[in-house]
Amino acid sequence: MTPRSVVALGGEGIGPEVIDATCELMIKAGMPVEIMTPPHGEPAIKSHGHGMPDTTKRACQSADGVLFGAAGRSATSAVVGWLRWEMGTYASVRPVKHYAGAASPLAHPEGIDYVIVRELSEGLYPGREGELADLARALPDLRDKFGRRVGEYGAGRFAAKVVTQGGVERAARFACELARGRKARGGQGKLTCITKSNVMPQSDGLFQHVVADVASREYPDLAHEHFYVDDGARRLIRFPRQMDVVLTMNLYGDILSDLGAETAGGLGMAPSGCYREGWAYFESVHGSAPDIAGRGIANPTGALLSAAMMLDHMKLAAEAERLEAAVARVYRDGKTLTADQGGKASTTAFAHAVLEAYRNS
Ligand code: ATP
What we know:
Distance between the termini: 20 Å
Number of helices: 12
Radius of gyration: 21 Å
Strand content: 15-25%
Order of helices and strands: EHEHHEHEEEHEHEHEHEHEEHHH
Structural class: alpha/beta
Bound molecules: adenosine-5'-triphosphate
Number of strands: 12
Low-confidence stretches: none
Helix content: 40-55%
């Protein structure tokens, strides 16, 4: 089988620890992958004068798969900024799945298995901010819903939320295709849209209506529902089994995916894939976790399951399924779990247990 080229970027904090453990597993398991680890982040600033050198960008663009660890507050923000915004990935797929034996705070987490699709390129999250006085000068007649002009607030700052018809349409189609694929494998065939369109009828309202339009006109085979984000957050905790594919805006998706991850067993377990047409990269939902970095105790499950998503993307579906099944087996056995799961295993001990389960399956 032709080996797939993979670029692995550890990033910062616990990122390198969980990515190293994941890469070692892929190699020792004999998966048909060739892994490159080009310079990035702090070391690349020293050697190349930039956190994301051009050679690393080119390697990522031409690789079959890209696996990223975690961004911190310094040099690696250039890496994730390039992977997300310059590469134009617009759909972040974040599975929320409970594996028997994982430490969920819910009394009955069994059967939780849904996916959050976070729109990744628009909304509030990219951070278009400025001085309120500049906004008042540019838009003197802009009023809030109570009639106050921007200039009446006094000194302060603003953040601009951007929602476009085209941006929502592509995210909606992506989420609907995902729901259709899941339905073909026995899923509910349902799209749940989450916004706050009751208080932001222009921006969130556009998101809600474009999603409803795409879902009803182009995907009549799928069920479609909408919740306001406060109600949606409550439902993800109270009725997680009713969810199938949840599509939401950038900042809500950032928050709700941490919430979902916790219900399923913890932030350290949650994987993601960020997609655009013809290209994707994969990373755990968790960040750099500076409180546990360098101690060898981080849970690598998020990185391992992100690698499984990457393998699937690289058309190595059998390896992807086998890796996910091996992770599930280690949780079921419950003998080699990391500290966040109530165990004593190190990052590498957990990954070795997954490797053994992979080999024995
Ligand atoms: P960021 O803003 O960079 O996304 P964050 O504020 O969301 O980061 P994280 O770094 O994602 O915070 O993690 C929050 C906490 O969850 C960490 O401080 C750590 O205690 C725990 N945590 C996160 N990932 C893991 C992991 N892989 N294994 C064990 N604990 C983890």
